[in-house]
Amino acid sequence: MSPTIYFISMGAMLGTIILVFGIRFLQASAVAGADAAHTDAYRRLASDAVTAQAGNAATLSAIQSELGEIKARMASVETILKTVE
Known about the structure:
Elements: H1 3-84
């Protein structure tokens, strides 16, 4: 076996191994990048949910205070109706 063929075959085998590990590294890097993007999107979604929940709590508080006013008015109307009877 000539040295040229030996070195070419060894280079092809080592090149294949290096190529496989390089492709695996690029794939792992792409997965990590996609995971980071997914995490950022989830954090934005959670932040938006917290903001919306705070807005809903403020709206609910306003509705409860208006409901209290309506109950007070209804009580006064009931009192007036009882005195009229």
